[in-house]
Specification:
The structure holds two protein chains of two kinds. By secondary structure, chain A is an alpha/beta fold. Chain A contains nine helices and 14 strands. In chain A, helix 3 runs parallel beside helix 4 (about 120-130) and helix 7 packs parallel to helix 8 (about 275-285). By secondary structure, chain B is α+β, with helices and mostly antiparallel strands. Chain B has three domains: about 20-120, ATP-grasp fold, A domain (Dna Ligase, domain 1), CATH 3.30.1490.20; about 125-250, D-amino Acid Aminotransferase, Chain A, domain 1 (2-Layer Sandwich), CATH 3.30.470; about 260-405, Rossmann fold, CATH 3.40.50. In chain B, about 40% of the residues lie in helices and about 25% in strands. Chain B is elongated and about 75 Å long. Classes of the chains: A alpha/beta, B alpha+beta. The interface between A and B is large, with 58 and 54 residues.
Chain lengths: ~300, ~400
């Protein structure tokens, strides 16, 4: 079991040029079912992919792949023809919000926006547009979502991921790699790793993903990686207090970040004394979460959270 | 992106938001020449000389070179002595202010050099209010905040008397609705002309904030005059960097003199860099990893000299540039390269580091921790280079080693 994506995920790609093409190739190599691509002027053509399969990906495939992915002019056409049920967005930032809305308008269940640098005003409008719709948006400005050996959507390297027991949810890309690498090394592995992204206005927050992991029988513990800025970690802490069933470990980046400065991510800023790492760590610890003192200790923090509950 | 007060007021004025009359000056002569037209246009013999820097607290701030002189100074000489007296006083003041260093609570002890001044008409103030438009992250919408406590920092008001802050949330599809402006203006106790003007001011300000992709618009104080006018006495506007592609006019307002030269240089190479006060230089990929690299250095007893994220798509050239920026800082006693290769490959980083050291030399200890994509290849490149590099097994190991070596 897993959350959000699995071997039944049929992916369509919005933004097949440049980086989108590169990562689509890696996803196919991993064994993700990429069924369609969207391009406004290349509908009717196909995009060719071939190469050596990623041995860490979906098991039981041949060593190499040759695929022609059909291109459609609109998301609706692509869904009608291919029964795609998820989308990944690599569209450049000025046009990415529009791409998200097109996917939601076509009632896709899952939209994963990788694009970095979408204006906040655009995301505010996207969130308004998504109200009342069934679409779940992950990101933007995130590495994507991966269920090891089943489906990889996004830009994370496949081979560091190993199927296992822990659900991972993170605002940061490279810290997610750091976390899954440690879970792989200590043998816990993970069910699904979800990058929710570093932007101040995003599709899905910690508590949403915590709830998904909570309902997934295969997920035995949850590792969440937060950072300074906003109050998503505090909200997560409140959610965990109310739903204490599964052990949770966490790491919060930015203990030493100076106030008022944006630390790389658009959302990582301490403003007016709010959003500090210390506040977030305190809230999580009060909710019974084991907080790793450094990123090197994320794996062991997860271990001790599991031990504490006898899992 | 930040802009100066006078630029914010130009933008507001063009959008029907009431601001006092004013003129910008970059030289003493320009400042003196601005006095007559300003006084004639406003009909008020009082002139206010305001330092233009990208930091708040200017009115209470003082110049390092002239400790008795405040960052914002009111020239009353015109009341008694007429225009000539005002002009002489402005000449005297601006000679001191231009080129001097203004220290405020927000600049830190180093202060900021004043290169531009804004001369503004005097205002007959009856009330000082507060107004802002900011993102409410929990609501995922912009919110307009108003308070009767003008002239005080809003964080302070929120701490002391939160009931004095009024808020309305702005629907992005509708914009600010008249009833919301009414709720704020009425809630502030405004009536008659002042009420009408405040309402108009608020609606125009909300529209401007949306149109300009502002991240923060803050009018503190918003003043009400005795004849019921409502004006932005101060004005601060910050913009969403990610939206600047659709505002070329705003980009022209960028004042590079207000920014840290190393940060400007870094942005040219697509690097996210922030200068800090410590002595351990950091070169990292990914914002979260870069932030926690600073944390872990501090955790093991060191002090980071910078935040630096080379990003996911960095080339050897970017990495070389990053390395040079770090080594330019005279405080740096050691460098920690911490990479978890994903899309970024470890060999790219290794090549960039080797190339940079070839170009600028290596005078301080260097610890490199590589993990992820092409890690073996990256390690071989570093080894083959013959550079004096200490390798680390993980982040904590690397942080300990560099802090020890730099001590």
């Amino acid at each position: 079991m897993s959350v959000l994506v699995d071997s039944n995920t049929r992916l369509l790609v919005q933004g097949i040029g440049g980086a989108g093409r590169f990562h689509t190739d890696k996803a196919i190599a991993y064994g993700t079912q990429v069924v369609a691509a969207i391009h406004p002027t290349r509908g009717g053509e196909t995009e060719h992919f071939e190469g050596v399969s990623d041995s860490s990906g979906v098991p039981g495939r041949s060593d190499s792949y040759r695929v022609d992915v059909p291109i459609f002019a609109t998301v609706r056409e692509a869904i009608a023809a291919t029964e795609a049920n998820a989308s990944v967005i690599y569209v450049p930032a000025p046009f990415a919000a529009d791409a998200i809305m097109e996917a939601a308008d076509a009632d896709l269940a899952l939209v994963v926006a990788i694009t970095e640098g979408i204006p906040i005003r655009d995301m505010i409008r996207v969130k308004r547009f998504l109200q009342g719709k069934a679409t779940r948006l992950i990101g933007p400005n995130c590495p994507g979502v991966i269920t090891p050996q089943q489906c990889k959507i996004g830009i994370m390297p496949g081979y560091i991921h190993q199927a296992g027991r822990i659900g991972v949810v993170s605002r940061s890309g490279t810290l997610t790699y750091e976390a899954v690498h440690q879970l792989t090394k200590n043998g816990l592995g993970h069910t699904t790793a979800v990058g929710i992204g570093g932007d101040p206005v995003n599709g899905t927050n910690f508590s949403d993903v915590l709830e998904l992991f909570h309902q997934d029988p295969a997920t035995e513990g949850i590792l969440m990686i937060g950072e300074i800025g906003g109050s998503a970690e505090e909200e997560a802490a409140a959610w965990i207090s109310e739903h204490p069933a599964k052990p949770v470990a966490a790491f919060i980046a930015g203990t030493t970040a100076p106030p008022g400065k944006r630390m790389g991510h658009a959302g990582a800023i301490i403003s007016g004394g709010r959003g500090t790492a210390a506040d977030k760590i305190r809230a999580l610890e009060q909710a019974g979460v084991v907080v790793a003192p450094t990123p090197t200790d994320m794996g062991t923090a997860m271990m001790s959270a599991l031990d504490r509950t006898g899992s | 992106m930040k802009i100066h007060e006078y630029q914010a007021k130009e933008l507001m004025k063009a959008r029907g938001i009431a601001v006092p009359q004013g003129r910008v000056a970059q030289t003493v002569d320009e400042a003196v020449a601005a006095v007559r037209p300003l006084v004639e246009a406003s009909g008020n013999p009082v002139v206010v000389v305001k330092s233009q820097i990208h930091a708040g607290g200017r009115g209470k701030g003082h110049f390092r070179e002239f400790p008795e002189l405040a960052g914002v100074t009111v020239v009353l000489d015109g009341l008694e002595g007429g225009l000539k007296a005002s002009e002489e006083r402005v000449r005297d003041l601006t000679k001191k202010m231009l080129g001097s260093t203004l220290v405020t609570v927000q600049t830190g002890p180093i202060g900021k050099q004043v290169n531009r001044l804004y001369l503004e008409q005097g205002i007959d103030i009856e009330r000082e209010l507060y107004l802002s438009v900011v993102l409410d992250r929990a609501q995922e919408r912009n919110t307009m905040m108003a308070s009767s406590e003008g002239g005080t920092e809003i964080e302070e008001v929120a701490e002391r008397s939160p009931e004095k802050i009024l808020r309305v949330t702005i629907d992005p599809a509708i914009g600010m609705a008249p009833f919301q402006a009414h709720a704020l203006a009425h809630g502030l106790g405004l009536r008659g002309e002042a009420y009408k003007n405040a309402k108009r001011f608020m609606l125009a300000l909300a529209a401007a904030a949306a149109e300009l992709d502002s991240e923060l618009v803050e009018i503190n104080p918003l003043v009400v005059t005795r004849d019921g006018k409502v004006l932005a006495l101060d004005g601060k506007m910050n913009f969403d960097n990610n939206a600047l592609f659709r505002h070329p006019d705003l980009l022209e307002m960028r004042d590079l003199a207000e920014e840290d030269p190393a940060e400007v240089e870094a942005s040219r190479y697509g690097l996210s860099f922030i200068k800090l006060d410590g002595n351990i230089g950091c070169l990292v990929n990914g914002a979260g990893l870069a932030m926690s690299t600073m944390d872990i250095i501090k955790h093991v007893g060191g002090e980071p000299a910078n935040f630096l994220d080379v990003g996911g798509g960095a080339t050897t050239e970017n990495v070389t540039a990053a390395f040079k920026i770090i080594t330019k800082d005279p405080n740096v006693r050691g460098i920690f390269v911490n990479i978890f290769g994903g899309i970024m490959k470890c060999d790219t980083i290794a090549n960039g580091v080797v190339e940079a050291v070839k170009q600028v030399g290596l005078k301080v200890p260097l610890v490199v921790r590589l993990e992820g994509t092409n890690v073996e290849l990256g390690k071989r490149i570093i080894e083959a280079s013959g550079l004096n590099v200490v390798s680390a097994d993980d982040m904590k190991d690397g942080a300990r080693k560099i802090v020890e070596l730099a001590a």
